[in-house]
């Protein structure tokens, strides 16, 4: 009797065989060894020479990566600012466009303007892309889904925090955080405003005038969670003093009630 697989395992098998071009029996064996973690199994497959010739995507992705390296001799496994800008330019992706954030999440860039070989090749294998036009198509597709697919947007949003760090910092400067929020919470991504409440404008105004401190990882992520809640309930009925929001969000809520809604009531002021 053939083995029985769950729907998740069938999906893992399909993804693994598509990327590696291996047969189903070999795929199931390696996936089981790695607890059905597709990424780990794929990495193990390509690191084992006994598996035969590498998948064409793997080889082509490496060749494509090599083309854009800034300093092949000293940094053979990195693409830095010049190479990254050239690659984005050839895909007609502006460095200040949200598509650049999508691309950076796809290849797991460790910093703005930097791409590692491992992240680039893994991203190509995950999406079965080995040319710039194919990568660009994936970026365009994901951009079109940002406002409709919370998971895609959250992945891009969370990775943006990593991109904004510099010099071993653990928090974003207020200026960088504000710049990133302005882009991510715009109509390009997750438009943070409701019928009567321009949330992004208020958030940036409050951050600049009342808070003006560095933004750590927890606050960055909680801001998205808070934004999602305000889109469902602009009266802030979900917020209570007993809620476990960061203190800056608590202060923001009080500021909105006092400064923007005339004294603490739950009724939103009409700003249309």
UniProtKB/TrEMBL annotation:
A Pfam family hit: Cullin_binding
Keyword Calcium recorded: no
InterPro entries to which the protein is assigned, alphabetical: DCN-prot, DCN1-like_PONY, PONY_dom, UBA-like_sf
UniProt superkingdom: Eukaryota
Keyword set, alphabetical order: Ubl conjugation pathway
Reported function: Neddylation of cullins play an essential role in the regulation of SCF-type complexes activity.
PANTHER family documented for this protein: DCN1-LIKE PROTEIN 3 (PTHR12281:SF31), RP42 RELATED (PTHR12281)
The protein's name in its UniProt record: Defective in cullin neddylation protein
Species annotation: Neohortaea acidophila
Upper lineage: Eukaryota, Fungi, Dikarya, Ascomycota, Pezizomycotina
């Amino acid at each position: 009797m053939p083995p029985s697989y769950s729907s998740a395992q069938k999906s893992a098998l399909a993804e693994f065989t598509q990327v590696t071009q291996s047969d189903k029996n070999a795929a199931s064996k390696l996936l089981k060894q790695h607890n059905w973690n597709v990424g780990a199994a794929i990495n193990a497959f390509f690191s084992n020479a006994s598996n035969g010739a590498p998948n064409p995507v793997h080889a082509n992705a490496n060749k494509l990566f090599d083309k854009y390296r800034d300093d092949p001799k000293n940094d053979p496994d990195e693409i830095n600012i010049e190479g990254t800008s050239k690659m984005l330019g050839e895909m007609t992706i502006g460095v200040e466009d949200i598509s650049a954030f999508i691309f950076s999440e796809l290849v797991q860039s460790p910093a703005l303007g930097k791409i590692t070989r491992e992240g680039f090749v893994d991203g190509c294998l995950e999406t079965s892309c080995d040319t710039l036009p194919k990568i660009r198509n994936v970026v365009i597709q994901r951009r079109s889904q940002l406002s409709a697919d919370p998971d895609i947007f959250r992945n891009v949003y969370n990775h943006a925090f990593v991109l904004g760090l510099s010099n071993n910092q653990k928090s974003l400067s207020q200026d960088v955080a504000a710049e990133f929020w302005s882009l991510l919470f715009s109509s390009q991504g997750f438009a943070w405003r409701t019928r009567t409440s321009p949330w992004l404008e208020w958030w940036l105004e409050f951050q600049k005038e009342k808070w003006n401190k560095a933004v750590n990882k927890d606050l960055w992520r909680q801001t998205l969670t808070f934004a999602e809640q305000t889109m469902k309930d602009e009266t802030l009925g979900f917020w209570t003093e007993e809620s476990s929001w960061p203190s800056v969000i608590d202060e923001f809520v009080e500021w909105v009630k006092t400064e923007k809604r005339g004294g603490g009531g739950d009724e939103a002021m009409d700003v249309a």
